[in-house]
Design a protein that fits this description.
The protein has 23 helices and 22 strands. The protein is an alpha/beta fold. The strands form four sheets. Strands 6-7-4-3-2-5-8 form a seven-stranded mixed sheet. A seven-stranded parallel sheet has the order 12-13-11-14-15-10-16, sandwiched between helices. It has a six-stranded parallel sheet with strand order 17-22-21-18-20-19, with helices on both faces. The chain binds adenosine-5'-diphosphate and magnesium ion. The site of adenosine-5'-diphosphate has 16 residues, from helix 11.
């Protein structure tokens, strides 16, 4: 017999063949289990009625109590729609139906009290509600209290589906005699240890909350469960992988490293840089393949850490590669690393899409013969015809610009996988990083080189242009350089945004005494390089650009960053852009220009920029506001999370506890790994032993949740 949860949804009371098809195509609900795990996305207090006179533009769905005054049909054929005039004692609004006009025309009686549930929208001066849920008002029945709201796609809504209908179907599920078959999915030991709500009670409260408190506990329980198994899964594979994949043993610290460190290094390393170098060295000398994420704010000095890591490789006779996401960044790295490397006799080369055929051939040969010690480049490095004599280390800068597949190709360039150091300036909390990036170890540079002055940041509206221009003039007179960034390359009549091409003309007009250059993503690489060179050399004093300059570009003499239509950029992006200044000048400025009438939350977002220059705080705020869907890297991690209720960005605390729980279980039960070997590595830390029954449960859950196995070599 099929289990209760696997029963076809068409057998549920109130469903049948036709509805089953719709539920399947619109909501992916095919079984009882699918429906049970389709959770409301929010909750409303149904004892609360809103007045039409209280409506505002930003409201979610609300309840109104009132009466229809009359109905009119407008339009013809497909464009036909029904409008009901609805009055609640405070104001009138229009209720609109775009389909099933004939049905709705006679469905409700004028003069009878109804409760409408829907999202108010404003058209000209009139409030409207399209396809609301309508139910007769019964003064003798008290309001239900807290109620879940489900996502109902438009197509279903037009066919008369509502949150109420879905909730009735779920009710039928709970009234089914076989609901008792739904068994607990977490081990008793875990439920105990973390005082979690049992599954059945949690499911009940998620759909039909008894009160806000129990709803909260129910949601916590369901989130914990998802994150616990996710962590267990990730840990299991990373421990497995750590055991299977061996790396080059780079044990020696030799002449290159020592000579450079004692004679050539241009500054004292910060404490954080030294600590991270120790962590890297520990990885590379053990024979374990390093797979490390280096997080550090813009300007924290990741490049030097990468270079000194390359010296460790060179001391052991290995080549290194560093891959950057843009041509500009690759050439900058090349200039820097060539100077550092050549001082101690290392041969450094640059390979990008721009490299001419002849030079390219020579570089290919140099890499194969071992004549080249360090190669700097872009995606061009991952082409198949780039072969190494002995690649020991790959550094990937600004990791979120690279896809998983591209990184994996770098791996395959040597029989033994090279050590991998991934660098990012978009830091995220540690447990989250380990989750999102699979089995990366995480190092953090949490200290800036001494003497950095925070960039002064202001939010300015269009009416302050004169003032901004005066500041630019003053800095130009002092010999400084200026960036002006635009959201668009070309003007677009549909968007009220500034473009870099318009900007170029305007800026040339405003500052006729200095040379202005321009860079954007639609330029030919050679042209881009030429323009960039003008700015880097200082012959051009103002650079107008799109966000191509967001990453890495280093011109210490630049002291002003103006960002036009700043409201169009994400916080992390703004932080990256701001990181282009404050690299040398005594005092630098970042000016966020926006229209005057930006919305409240946009203003709040931008004001975070004016309040802090700490990239960790900014990326945390960014994540909370945008949600993890947009988070850099989630789409690239290669791990299908399939989270229904937990949110990696905002449930950080539950994520941490779930991680601890998963670690404790795995510490006590290394047999959960696929290849439990003798001499199993010991992981220090807490242990949580499970009963044989619980262990069986965990195995089953892992199998059903993550039936697809991942090729972890694909994830670097
Ligand atoms: P990011 O981490 O953003 O890649 P960079 O590696 O480009 O930062 O470093 C930013 C600047 O700081 C560079 O000019 C670099 O030479 C300088 N720098 C790096 N480490 C130190 C240090 N310990 N002391 C002083 N300056 C440093
Ligand atoms: Mg950098």
């Amino acid at each position: 017999m099929l289990s209760f949860l696997d029963t076809d949804i068409k057998y549920l009371k109130g469903v049948g063949d036709k509805r089953a098809q719709l539920l399947d195509s619109e909501l992916d609900i095919r079984t009882f289990g699918d429906l049970l795990y389709t959770f409301p996305y929010r909750y409303v207090d149904t004892s609360r009625f809103y007045k039409i006179s209280e409506f505002s533009g930003e409201m979610p769905s609300v309840q109104v109590l009132g009466r229809f005054v009359g109905f009119t049909v407008e339009g013809e054929g497909l464009r036909q729609r029904l409008k009901g005039s609805f009055y609640d004692g405070s104001r009138f609004m229009e209720v609109v139906w775009f389909s099933k006009v004939n049905f709705f025309k006679t469905a409700y009686q004028p003069g009878v009290a109804y409760i409408l549930f829907g999202k108010p929208t404003q058209f000209r001066d009139i409030w409207q509600m399209a396809h609301p849920e309508v139910s007769a008002y019964d003064a003798t029945r008290p309001p239900e209290g807290f109620r879940g709201v489900y996502t109902i796609p438009d197509k279903l809504r037009k066919k008369g589906y509502s949150t109420r209908l879905l909730s009735d179907l779920v009710k039928n599920l709970f009234n089914n005699a076989r609901i008792g078959e739904v068994g607990e999915t977490l081990p008793a030991e875990i439920i105990d240890k973390y005082s979690l709500m049992p599954l059945r009670e949690a499911l009940g409260n998620i759909h039909f909350p008894q009160n806000p408190d129990r709803l909260q506990k129910a949601r916590e329980r369901m989130k914990f469960e998802e994150l616990f198994y996710l962590q267990l899964h990730i840990l299991r594979y990373s421990r497995e992988r750590g055991r299977r994949i061996r790396g080059h043993v780079l044990a020696k610290i030799g002449d290159y490293f020592n000579t450079y460190y004692s004679r050539h290094i241009p500054f004292e390393l910060t404490g954080a840089q030294k600590r991270v170098l120790r962590e890297i060295r520990n990885d590379m000398r053990t024979g374990r393949q390093m797979n490390r994420l280096l997080q550090g704010d813009v300007g924290s000095g990741k490049t030097m850490v990468a270079f000194m890591t390359m010296l460790m490789a060179a001391d052991n006779g290995f080549q290194s590669a560093i891959m950057a996401p843009t041509e500009i960044l690759a050439s900058q790295h090349f200039e820097t690393i060539r100077v550092w490397g050549e001082a101690i006799g290392l041969r450094v080369a640059l390979l990008t899409g721009n490299t001419r055929a002849k030079a390219r051939r020579e570089i290919h040969e140099g890499l194969q013969s071992g004549d080249i010690d360090i190669i700097v480049g872009t995606h061009a490095l991952i082409e198949d015809n780039v072969q190494f004599r002995n690649l020991g280390l790959t550094v990937i800068d600004e990791q979120h610009r690279f896809g998983v597949a591209q990184r994996a190709k770098m791996w395959k360039k040597s029989a033994v996988a090279p050590h991998v150091l991934v660098m990012t300036a978009t830091p995220i909390p540690r447990t989250l990083a380990m989750t999102v990036y699979g089995d990366l170890d995480v190092s953090v540079i949490d200290e800036l080189p001494p003497g950095r002055k925070p960039v002064q940041t202001w939010l300015k509206f269009d009416n302050a242009r004169m003032e901004v221009n005066r500041l630019i003039n003053r800095e130009l007179k002092a010999g400084r350089q200026v960036y002006i960034v635009y959201p668009l390359v070309k003007e677009n009549p549909k968007l009220e945004l500034k473009s870099v091409e318009q900007g170029l003309e305007r800026v040339r007009g405003l500052f006729p005494d200095v040379k202005v250059c321009m860079v954007h993503g639609q330029m030919k690489p050679a042209e881009k390089d030429y323009q960039m060179e003008q700015f880097v050399s200082g012959s051009a004093r103002i650079l107008v650009a799109t966000t191509v300059i967001e990453v890495g570009v280093n011109v210490p003499n630049a002291s002003v960053m103006v960002i036009e239509n700043a409201e169009r950029f994400g916080l992390s992006q703004l932080h990256q852009l701001r990181g282009r200044v404050g690299r040398g000048a005594d005092c630098s400025y970042c000016i966020l220009m926006t229209r005057h009438n930006i919305a409240g939350d946009t203003r709040k977002r931008l004001s975070i920029m004016t309040e802090t220059t700490d990239g960790f705080l900014i990326s945390e705020a960014d994540m909370k506001m945008r949600g993890p869907g947009d988070m850099e890297g989630t789409q690239q991690s290669g791990i299908a999370f399939n989270l229904r209720i937990a949110n990696l960005a905002s449930d950080g605390q539950i994520l941490n506890v779930a991680r601890q729980g998963a670690e404790a279980v795995l510490n006590a039960h290394p047999e959960l790994l696929e290849t439990p070997a003798h001499g199993v590595e010991q992981y220090p830390g807490e242990e949580l032993a499970l009963s044989p029954e619980s262990l069986g449960l965990v195995r089953t859950e892992l199998r059903t949740r993550f039936s697809k196995t991942y090729d972890w070599s694909q994830i670097s």
